[in-house]
Write a structure and sequence with these properties.
By secondary structure, this protein is α/β, with parallel strands linked by helices. The chain has a single domain, classed as Rossmann fold. Helix 2 runs parallel beside helix 3. The radius of gyration is 20 Å and the shape is elongated. It starts with 9 loop residues before the first strand and ends with a helix. The relative contact order is 0.12.
C-alpha cells in the first residue's frame, strides 16, 4: 500500500489515555490531517497492517506492550512510516532506547501543540524527501539498465 499523493497525510495516535487521543486528534484534524487512534499496541498493529499511515505517535507505556516493542515491530514491517515516541515519563534511557529502536523523534508530554505540529511537519517532509530519493534511484537504475541492454544489443550486432 502506498499513500495517495493527493490526500492529506494520515496519522495514527497510539495511547491508552482516551483524553490524550481526543486532544491530539482534534489538534491534528484542525490542521487538515486525517487521524485514527489505537488504545494499545495490538490494535495499532492491526490498523497499521490494514492501511498506510504516514506517521504514528506512539506512547512509550501501553497496557499490552512497551511502546519501544511496538516501535520495533512497526519499524521492521512498515519502514516508510515515520514514528514519533510520546512519553509522560522522561528518562534518558527511554529516549536512547526509542531512538535506537528506530524512532524518528521523541516528545515529552505534556506536548505544546505548536511543537508537536512542527515536529510532525518536519517528519512528513523527511518522508516526502525519502520517497523522492527512492523514485530517483529507481529511475536512474532503469536508465542504467536500459543503457547496458542497448550496449549489449549493439555489441551483439557487430
Amino acid at each position: 500500500m502506498t499513500p495517495d499523493k493527493a490526500e492529506k497525510p494520515i496519522i495514527l495516535i497510539v495511547d491508552d489515555d482516551a483524553s490524550i487521543c481526543e486532544t491530539l486528534s482534534t489538534i491534528l484534524q484542525q490542521e487538515g490531517y486525517r487521524v485514527d487512534t489505537a488504545k494499545n499496541g495490538k490494535e495499532a498493529l492491526q490498523k497499521a497492517k490494514a492501511r498506510f499511515f504516514n506517521l504514528a505517535l506512539l506512547d512509550i507505556k501501553l497496557p499490552d506492550m512497551k511502546g519501544t516493542q511496538l516501535l520495533t515491530t512497526i519499524n521492521e514491517n512498515l519502514p516508510k512510516m515515520r514514528k514519533i515516541m510520546l512519553t509522560g515519563y522522561p528518562a534518558l534511557e527511554n529516549a536512547v532506547e526509542a531512538l535506537n529502536q528506530g524512532a524518528d523523534a521523541y516528545i515529552i508530554k505534556p506536548v505544546k501543540p505548536e511543537r508537536l505540529l512542527t515536529i510532525i511537519k518536519e517528519q512528513l517532509d523527511k518522508q516526502k524527501q525519502n520517497d523522492k530519493i527512492t523514485e530517483e534511484k529507481v529511475t536512474n537504475w532503469i536508465k542504467t539498465r536500459a543503457r547496458k541492454l542497448e550496449d549489449q544489443n549493439h555489441q551483439n550486432q557487430k
